From TrEMBL:
<keyword id="KW-0547">Nucleotide-binding</keyword>
<keyword id="KW-0067">ATP-binding</keyword>
<comment type="similarity">
    <text>Belongs to the cytidylate kinase family. Type 1 subfamily.</text>
</comment>
<keyword id="KW-0808">Transferase</keyword>
<feature type="domain" description="Cytidylate kinase">
    <location>
        <begin position="7"/>
        <end position="225"/>
    </location>
</feature>
<dbReference type="GO" id="GO:0016301">
    <property type="term" value="F:kinase activity"/>
</dbReference>
<feature type="binding site">
    <location>
        <begin position="11"/>
        <end position="19"/>
    </location>
    <ligand>
        <name>ATP</name>
    </ligand>
</feature>
<keyword id="KW-0418">Kinase</keyword>
<dbReference type="InterPro" id="IPR027417">
    <property type="entry name" value="P-loop_NTPase"/>
</dbReference>
<dbReference type="InterPro" id="IPR011994">
    <property type="entry name" value="Cytidylate_kinase_dom"/>
</dbReference>
<dbReference type="Pfam" id="PF02224">
    <property type="entry name" value="Cytidylate_kin"/>
</dbReference>
<keyword id="KW-0963">Cytoplasm</keyword>
<dbReference type="InterPro" id="IPR003136">
    <property type="entry name" value="Cytidylate_kin"/>
</dbReference>
<protein>
    <recommendedName>
        <fullName>Cytidylate kinase</fullName>
        <ecNumber>2.7.4.25</ecNumber>
    </recommendedName>
</protein>
Length: 231
């Protein structure tokens, strides 16, 4: 595939955006960027520094701390994908917990946080040949992306997938707890003032409630092929 394009994958939490994006990037030989990991890392930083809890959120202190937050993706050859590093420390495992999930949407609401991360994301994708997933990739980060995907499925379906993942990792969670988190994140993501989660006008919506990973990948790969042929 000679023509290199930008692929933006947006959608609700736990729709499998990252899984699909990794598959596509590996298959196409593209760079993969998990923007959700970046926001999770900032949320983890806020938790570590006692700037956020269920009772309070010290936004101003987080904003003042942004210059000291260094985010990097480092490729792990054994895993086959890049892991998230926060201030030179691998936090890939720590940022995937339900505890971080509770706060990540609140952190992502902060305009200064979004501005800092969007700037980095735009820089990462300046040469195309990139697959990036998140909440505002097709609308804010790469509105000019040649292919935009918007992924969705029911909250119950997404919560079940997320619950199974967490249990498989040994996390002590209940399905009700995960479902509540999914629904709360949906509300915050779609109602925030700065870059809310919306489907771009030229995005292709994919409801993967009843698609397995292979079926989903095949559908999107056909879209990729059609897109590269048309440019």
């Amino acid at each position: 595939m000679d023509k290199k394009i930008t692929i933006a994958i947006d959608g609700f939490s736990s729709t499998g955006k990252s899984t699909l994006a990794k598959q596509l990037a590996n298959y196409l030989g593209y760079v993969y960027v998990d923007t959700g990991a970046m926001y999770r890392a900032v949320a983890f930083f806020a938790m570590q520094n006692e700037l956020i809890s269920t009772e309070f959120f010290d936004k101003e202190s987080l904003i003042k701390s942004l210059p000291s937050i260094k985010l990097q993706f480092k490729f792990n050859a054994d895993l086959g994908f890049a892991e998230m590093y926060l201030n030179d420390v691998n936090v890939e495992t720590e940022i995937r917990t339900i505890e971080v999930s509770r706060f990540v949407s609140k952190v992502a609401e902060v305009s200064e946080v979004r501005a800092k991360l969007v700037e980095q994301q735009k820089e990462m994708g300046k040469d195309k040949a990139i697959v990036m997933d998140g909440r505002d990739i097709g609308t804010v980060v790469f509105p000019e992306a040649e292919l935009k995907i918007f992924m969705t499925s029911s909250a119950t379906t997404r919560a079940k997938r997320r619950y199974d993942e967490l249990v498989a990792k040994g996390d002590d969670v209940t399905f009700e707890e995960v479902l509540k988190n999914v629904e709360e994140r949906d509300y915050i993501d779609t109602n925030r003032e700065d870059s809310p989660l919306v489907m771009a006008n030229d995005a292709v919506e994919i409801d993967n409630s009843y698609l397995n990973r292979k079926e989903q990948f095949d559908v999107v790969l056909e879209l990729v092929n059609d897109t590269t042929k048309s440019i």
